Amino acid sequence: MQGLLSISRVIDTVNTYIGKAASWLILVAVVISAGNAVIRKVFSSSSNAWLEAQWYLFGAVFMLCAAWTLLANEHIRIDVVNSLFPKRVRNWIDIVGHTLFLLPFCILLLYDSWPFFLKSYLQNEQSMNAGGLVVWPAKFLVVAGFVLLFFQGISELIKRIAIMRGELEDVHGGGHHEMAEAEAARLLEVAKAQGLLDAAKK
């Protein structure tokens, strides 16, 4: 298991580095967007290349940061329901979800997106807009994003199994559950205190 955990750490490190680097593209997109708006208002002109650059940058952030988001346990999930289950049940839900849904979904998308990108690359596909950008790098982002997400799914599966075997500390899995329990306990104490205050007033 330690060998698999070493592989998991490598995957986590790579996806963290790529995710943090790609997140800076948000700033670049904001600067380009602001520049386009100023030029359009002041000079009454615009460039399709710069407009498409914004879309490319947004796509790059979305695709290249998806694996990092999964690593940080920040993907949307139904915490209201998930927090009601015991920790072991939630671990099994993660294992089944990664095995039967996430990983097959990534494989399916890679199977479909690779020919989609390759055809565009071989044709050196260009934007249909005048002065637009070359298209295939944007299509490659789909392939790259799902490759990273697939490997991060493998890493999460390894870590979840290790957690259930007691070989790894659960950093994320119990957080929301314990927070919900703590909040419920706090509200109960407040209610009790309020009841005592009301009784004292009487």
From TrEMBL:
GO terms for cellular component: plasma membrane. The keyword Membrane applies. GO terms for molecular function: transmembrane transporter activity. It is found in: Cell inner membrane. This is TRAP transporter small permease protein. Keywords: Cell inner membrane, Cell membrane, Membrane, Transmembrane, Transmembrane helix, Transport. Signal peptide: none annotated. Pfam families: DctQ (PF04290). Its main location: membrane. Part of the tripartite ATP-independent periplasmic (TRAP) transport system. Residues 31-161 form the Tripartite ATP-independent periplasmic transporters DctQ component domain. It is a multi-pass membrane protein. The keyword Cell inner membrane applies. Belongs to the TRAP transporter small permease family. The chain crosses the membrane at residues 21-43, 55-72, 92-111, 131-151. InterPro entries: DctQ, TRAP_DctQ. The complex comprises the extracytoplasmic solute receptor protein and the two transmembrane proteins.
